[in-house]
Amino acid sequence: MTLETILLAVGPGDAERTDALAEAVIEVAAPAESTVVLAHVFTDDEYEKVLDQLSFDPEVEEVDPNEVAGRHATIRDLRNPLDDAGVNYEVRGSVGDHGKAIVDLATDVNADRVVVGGRKRSPTGKAVFGSTAQEVLLSAPCPVTFVRSSD
How far apart are CA 7 and CA 77, in angstroms? Predict the structure, then answer.
């Protein structure tokens, strides 16, 4: 299966797993010369906080979620290993419910694979992923790779 487009979707909990996410994406993207869509998905509240942290003023300027995502630390941390590996990528930002926004982005970019991160679950929680990962795994229009934290 040729992977032309891989969606790597991150959110607020992914800052500590950027190395693992980058490694997983490079492993499949580099040999196939795929394009990776680096997407940061924000809820409405998260987006407002990030706008403030990054000194955007929506009352003075029009704010593009793609630009906000591109300036976010998690996306910046993912760019370096992708650049080093020679992987082509573009950056997207999206605002809304994490799971639905990731599925919508996967559809919009015609993704051949989605990569998302998550954390280890407690013994009782191992049978069920978090709500975002679960929604993406069940609703994405393509295969999904789940990269969990090592801790």
Answer: 16
120: its two tokens: 């280890």
- Domain limits of the chain? 5-148
Q: Mind listing the pLDDT tens digit for each residue in 35-86?
A: 999 999 999 999 999 999 888 887 887 889 999 999 999 999 999 999 999 9
Assigned architecture for domain 5-148: 3-Layer(aba) Sandwich (3.40)
Instruction: Return the pLDDT at 67.
Output: 93
Query: By three-state DSSP, how is residue 115 classified?
Result: strand
Enter the DSSP assignment of 15.
G
Residue 77 corresponds to which tokens in the numbers above? 């941390």
For residue 113, list its beta bridge partners.
Answer: 6
Q: Which residues contact 105 (CB under 8 A, 6 or more apart)?
A: 7, 9, 37, 39, 41, 92, 94, 111
Q: Tell me, what's the pLDDT at 13? A: 84
In this structure, what token pair is assigned to residue 71? 């300036």
